[in-house]
Design goal:
Length: about 425
């Protein structure tokens, strides 16, 4: 209780908003591929393109929304993006064609800057030395959303039909809009917004990013690491039905996939609330990226080589721990590689890197899955292992071992 009282009220408010958002989003995750397959007779390679469409739209819009939040404030951009999410969920539930499914995912991607802006908000209200832990709270909230959302979505789909969860997710998104409107304080002052709108430094050119060696390494690790995750995200529901829960009924397989994602959520919460804070006392952020990659490799290997429900549950836990240890430090490092007025912008660039990787991986995930359902997990494990090398370069670049080093290179203004 004392620990909660010590947390900034604004941080608690944004975490509550992210939680409600994630419950709604996580509800649809395990059921969308099966919904597209059963209701619209879509093939696996087309189903995975739904994810590609979402991340392609987010890739284009991410940096733009991040910069808008720097220039005009976090709260207005959050509200606009959340409204887009609510509308997209409603369209998914009412969809009568494949085209409407793709339209809904593209709309959600274009307006899907809510998590980017929420993370920028957290960096605004958190001192540097606590930033990784605070961003870790976001991943803990993701985990709580995954504990509740997938199982709830799968259960609602099994009991009331495949369209009901989308309408409930839309209602959850509307609740998020109201929470943001009535409870969230703006963190970017009017003076800061005016300065950010007029400052040429606000523009992050490709050349200026290329000259920032630390940021380049961060983006490289994020891109390659996310590629393997994208393969998993696009095919996990199909893999669960065809391999993990082979021989079970369709409804039981749907519930089983939801339970697996719930385990991922439990792993995220335990990692962020218990493991990460303790690890930060002993390891620098760049080292945690390396450790997280190794643990994630173990989890993906479990799926690839021992595809049973019991081993899958253990693999899901290891996967969640690995992701939870590497992602908050990686994001925190990105915000310290640039000047403070560019925090929203760099998080947008970071998210666009994640989105670009996911676009590429989800575009080919269905084809890889059709060759062998375990191949996406095997390739993901290999990529997680390969990306350890640039992560070790990041350790050297950031002088890991010296707590919270000063930035050596920042993104310079574009003219």
């Amino acid at each position: 209780m004392k620990k909660l009282k010590s947390i900034d009220r604004r941080l608690l408010t944004i975490l509550l908003i992210v939680f409600v958002q994630m419950v709604g989003a996580a509800m649809i995750m395990p059921i969308l591929p099966l919904y597209a397959q059963s209701e619209f007779n879509m093939s696996p390679n087309i189903i995975t393109l739904l994810g590609t469409a979402f991340f392609a739209a987010q890739f284009i819009a991410g940096p733009f929304l991040g910069r808008l939040s720097d220039k005009y404030g976090r709260v207005p951009v959050l509200i606009i993006s959340q409204v887009g999410t609510a509308v997209s969920f409603f369209i998914l539930g009412a969809a009568g064609s494949v085209a409407m499914l793709f339209f809904a995912r593209i709309l959600d991607g274009i307006t899907g800057g809510n998590i980017i802006v929420a993370q920028a908000y957290i960096t605004d209200v958190t001192p540097r030395e606590k930033r990784t832990q605070s961003l870790g709270y976001v991943f803990a909230v993701f985990g709580l959303g995954f504990i509740i959302g997938p199982a709830l979505g799968a259960t609602l789909s099994a009991l009331f039909g495949p369209r009901v969860p989308y309408y409930i997710a839309a209602v959850a998104a509307v609740v998020v809009v109201l929470l943001t409107w009535f409870t969230l304080d703006e963190t970017v002052s009017a003076e800061q917004r005016m300065a950010n709108r007029s400052a040429k430094a606000q523009k992050m050119s490709v050349g200026s990013i290329a000259r920032n060696s630390s940021l380049l390494l961060i983006l490289l690790v994020a891109f390659i690491g996310q590629f393997g995750m994208g393969l998993l995200q696009a095919t996990f529901s199909l893999f669960g039905e065809a391999v993990l829960f082979q021989g079970y009924s369709e409804k039981m397989a749907t519930v089983g996939v939801g339970v697996m994602l719930t385990i991922v959520g439990v792993g995220q919460v335990l990692t962020q609330t218990t493991l990460l804070p303790r690890a930060l006392k002993h390891f620098d952020e760049a080292w945690l990226v390396v450790i997280g990659l190794v643990i994630r490799t173990m989890g993906l290997s479990g799926f690839a080589f021992f595809a049973t429900p019991l081993v899958g549950a253990v693999a899901a836990l290891f996967f969640a721990m690995g992701v939870g240890l590497m992602m908050p430090p990686l994001q925190s490092l990105s915000t310290t590689a640039v000047s403070d007025e560019l925090r929203g912008g760099v998080l947008g660039v970071y998210q666009s890197t994640i989105s670009l990787s996911t676009i590429a991986s989800t575009a080919i995930a269905g084809t890889i899955y059709l060759i062998n359902p375990t191949f996406p997990f095997l390739i993901g494990a290999l990529l997680s292992l390969v990306v350890v090398t640039p992560a070790l370069f990041l350790v050297k670049q950031t002088h890991a071992g010296r707590r919270y080093p000063k930035k050596e290179t920042a993104v310079t203004p574009s003219n």
